[in-house]
Design goal:
By secondary structure, the chain is an alpha/beta fold. 36% of the residues lie in helices and 16% in strands.
């Protein structure tokens, strides 16, 4: 397992592929996972076409998770539990699973400007309930525009609230430094993910009302410089 590698399950979707492009451009090895191997292979080729010298490989989800210490879960909420259950036997202690999921009401045929309740409190806490003991779950990247991630010539200009246990949280915060314009915000314990996930529905509504197809970003003001 390459300690610099990042696995992205659902890396064939817009947001996951955007992160794959950015991390590959930053020089990190990237493994794109999908339920369908051919889609993962095609997405990896798209990254190689866009980023000269990219170290990227497309694999099925179960093979992707064993390649990296950080596994980013970038799948729709309705596929979250099934995806985690399908790979959980291949996760090992001290791996970090990053939950990007948001319980949007589209999962039940409603609109993306609303969320549905999750018994555990948030999608991230649901993931934490499903992974094996010793695997860390961190919440991050929910509110980063897929369109802006894929515009490699431009900074993303967005804050990323990262929540989870202290050590894994800091590890994921460091990933934000790989993407120009992203700033990591220490979001505290994983329970705070429920607030961050709810903001996603608000931002989707703002995109619609203000006609911003590129995606509205989130910035926190008044924080001290690090």
């Amino acid at each position: 397992m390459d300690q610099n590698a990042i696995a992205i399950l659902g890396g064939t979707g817009d947001q996951g592929l955007g992160l794959a492009l950015r991390f590959a451009k930053a020089g990190r090895p990237v493994f794109i996972g999908s339920r369908k191997l051919e889609r993962a292979v095609a997405a990896a080729q798209e990254v190689r076409d866009a980023v000269a010298g990219a170290q990227v490989e497309g694999l099925d989800n179960a093979d992707a998770v064993v390649q990296a210490p950080i596994v980013i879960l970038s799948v729709p909420f309705e596929h979250t539990a099934g995806t985690v259950k399908a790979v959980k036997e291949r996760l090992v202690a001290d791996q970090i699973v990053v939950s990007m999921g948001v319980p949007l009401a589209t999962a039940i045929g409603d609109g993306a400007v609303r969320t549905v309740g999750v018994w555990q409190g948030s999608c991230a806490e649901l993931v934490a309930a499903l992974v094996p003991a010793g695997v860390h779950v961190v919440s991050a990247f929910q509110n980063v525009s897929a369109h802006r991630l894929r515009e490699l010539a431009q900074p993303v200009e967005c804050d990323v609230v990262v929540s989870g246990a202290s050590g894994p949280r800091k590890t994921v915060m460091a990933l934000c430094e790989l993407v120009p314009g992203l700033r990591a915000i220490d979001g505290g314990p994983l329970a705070n993910a429920r607030f961050v996930e709810g903001v996603t529905a608000l931002l989707i509504g703002l995109n619609v009302r203000y006609k911003v197809p590129e995606g509205v970003g989130l910035r926190f003001t008044g924080l001290p410089e690090r």
